[in-house]
């Protein structure tokens, strides 16, 4: 009998960019994310004679998934598997699919192979595939921090409902992957030590802002975090320039909306898409403005979602 699990994507409001040396794919710095209910990966696993992978209905080889399976098999009894995974959001839209993908895969394998992992162990398993996936095990606001580097639920999705409008400015896959980009920043950016030195204080301040449901403080910290991360990217050698002209126009529009009373802030990841986080009442206005910016090819809207789980049969 096959086993199916679903997981949602997440976006970090406090960013992870840079790994510890050694095994386990542990981040250098803490992060804090929101899980996005509208962006879902559904993954089915079943026994097979040899590993086989299908993504969105097509047979593929994926080095990152193959590496994760080999790594997991050092610790868990996982036989050869046929894995089939689908995203309900366009994979080619430049939105992170590895977070929801590895969270769904770890959840499906845990159930299918009878590993009986705790949420924390399953989060660590997902992290070994992709750092951000550790956070998609939980819904709502999720922290990933020392010493365990397992996702920890900070606030349930319905405890502070927020909306996210994603402005897609370039649908093609990103030029430099997060894994390669963050290693480059750690090795070459003169600002990397400052990133590490300020991370814990930023993390504590953001956790406090979430605890107090302080939207303005959360927005100020989130914008500072993504801009600090892009400063690392820009100061890497060779430089990592993920922005498009339309990305900058979206950021400018979000500032103008805010000056005009809208409760909204921006964040970006290792790509040109701009994510506007806002209170639900302002989502329609934010989306209407962003979708009309030249260079924005489409927008997506999401609320917060729940954690990774086995699908009902
Ligand atoms: C910019 O989790 O994709 O989205 O661990 O190498 O798979 P790997 O990296 P990944 O990096 C995420 C980087 C980010 C910020 C974040 O999600 O915290």
Structure report:
This protein is of the alpha+beta class and 313 residues long. Helices cover 36% and strands 24% of the residues. It is built from 8 helices and 12 strands. The strands form 2 sheets. Strands 1, 2, 3, 4, 5, 6, 7 and 12 form an 8-stranded mixed β-sheet that branches. Strand 9 and strand 10 form a beta hairpin. The mean pLDDT is 96. Bound molecules: ligand DP6. Ligand DP6 binds next to helix 4.
Note the topology.
Blueprint: E1 3-14, E2 31-47, E3 52-55, E4 58-59, H1 63-73, E5 81-87, H2 98-112, H3 119-129, E6 141-145, E7 150-155, E8 163-168, H4 178-188, H5 192-211, H6 215-234, H7 245-259, E9 264-267, E10 274-278, H8 283-291, E11 298-303, E12 309-310
Helix pairs in contact: 2-3, 5-6
Ligand DP6 binds near residues 96 and 179.
Strand content is 15-25%
Rg calculated over all Cα atoms: 19 Å
Number of helices: 8
Low-confidence stretches: none
Secondary structure category: alpha+beta
Q: Mind describing the biggest β-sheet?
A: 8 strands, mixed
Average pLDDT, all residues: 96
- Helix content estimate: 25-40%
Q: Roughly how many Å apart are the termini?
A: 10 Å
The backbone outline, from C-alpha atoms, is globular
Q: What's the total number of strands?
A: 12
List the bound ligands: ligand DP6
Name the assembly state: single chain
What's the SSE pattern?
EEEEHEHHEEEHHHHEEHEE
